[in-house]
Amino acid sequence: MTSTIDTSNQTVDHSASGPPDSAEAPSPAKSKLGRAVILALFAIIGADIMDLLDTTIMNIASPVLRTDLGASTSALQWIVAGYTLAFAVMLTTGGRLGDVFGRKRMFQVGISGFLAGSILCSLAQTSGELIGARILQGAFAAVMIPQGLGMLRAMVPPEKMNSVFGIFGPMMGLAATLGPILGGWLVGANLFGLSWRAIFLVNVPVGIVALAFGSKVLPRDEHAADGTKPKLDLIGMLLATAGVMMLVYPLVQGREAGWPAWMFALMAGAVPTFGVFALHQRHRSAAGRDPFVVPTVFRKRSFVSGIAVLFAFAAAMSGVFFVYTLFMQVGLHFSALHAGLTMLPWSIGTMVSMGASQALMPKLGPRRTLQAGMLVMSLGTVISALLVHNYGATTTSWTLVAPLLVSGMGMGLIFGPIFGTVLGDLDDAEVGSASGLLNAMQQLAGAFGIAALGTVFFDKAGAMMTSVPTAATLVFVISAAILVVAWAVAFTMSKHTQEAEGH
Prior knowledge:
Elements: H1 14-17, H2 28-31, H3 35-68, H4 73-101, H5 103-123, H6 127-144, H7 147-155, H8 161-189, H9 198-201, H10 203-217, H11 234-257, H12 261-286, H13 301-331, H14 336-342, H15 344-364, H16 366-391, H17 397-422, H18 428-461, H19 468-489
Helix pairs in contact: 3-4, 3-6, 3-8, 3-10, 3-13, 4-5, 4-6, 4-11, 4-18, 5-6, 5-7, 5-10, 8-14, 8-15, 11-12, 11-18, 13-17, 13-18, 13-19, 15-16, 15-17, 16-17, 16-19, 18-19
């Protein structure tokens, strides 16, 4: 249930909204949240819901894919992680494409490509075909998602944005809560004999409605008065992609391949690759050209430590969700719907504590609120480990209610302050680029967590999956330890917050 927080817009969209000093009278659409704005908002929400559902639903379907497609354990990891990996790598570029070619145009391109990817997923006959279609989905989602905030800014004055997010937040929370349940029902109901394929086809009507509303009510693309456009850093994107793949590919494939020496060499090679990427960003920035990431952000210790905390949190969260689903469906033989309903306390806890975090931050401060969430989530994960270890194959949904609720409450406390706290010590000129990097790192960490913790799980569970409770217990313990380390590192983060662009 990876929650995507849209922090990917890298520039304030003056090309769409006009110069900041514009003396134009506000248009009727900007005077209040009129019908056009509401329809535009629901078009953008529809796109975000498709992305959110495809990250939450897929975990539920993973065990069914083992039987239907004969997917190997590494293929299961790629089916889930391939989407988030492509999303992470392409996200910053997706935001830039909106700056260059127009947000409305790229929003429509993104939805169209996402729908095509969804249909290809539903038609897949092998795990390889499904992985390829999932990667295509993730890449087009990265083009689709970043455009929303820029278009809303063009339609809504700043003082009305709280009203916008008052609609947006609950809708996304509801989608996150119902995603696993919907996925479980679709898989279990086997509508028209589609089984897991229905979870991708559900995107089609949502996407068509979003396209129809968007074409009518979203603001048309305009260019800046001086005609300037940001440039795409394709070399930077390729270097970043290469470094990420050199890390993730061995983690997913290494166990099945017997960990040959070349895989360790590949992981080691990621270090100089990222070094070349950093040098390229520095030289590009010094030459006055748009970098993939503004390099000065890495001179702030609080930002670097914040990135580490975000990465650890997102990796642990994604890995735990992936393993929880496998434990329930493979180890406990729950149906997909039963597994989805069992995870409901986590979603409820997250929604409740996200509201509570807004009340706690003025009293405790954002960093302490974040750290409290790390400890609470770690506690919930430890309780999960103890209960699964004690009850094993006799674990029931009721056994897991308390640890899931506690873990969800911890996650909600983290989500509230984490982005603003990571950005707390950055200059205004650095926030846009850093925001895009944060969202990309969140997605990358999700893919990394599934790859690394999934590998630990499958290795411990054995080829015949005879030790699933033991494997799940080990993953929960490791995840709790990661969260405790993140809590300790968070002491070096900023004590202040700064609004993430798009948060």
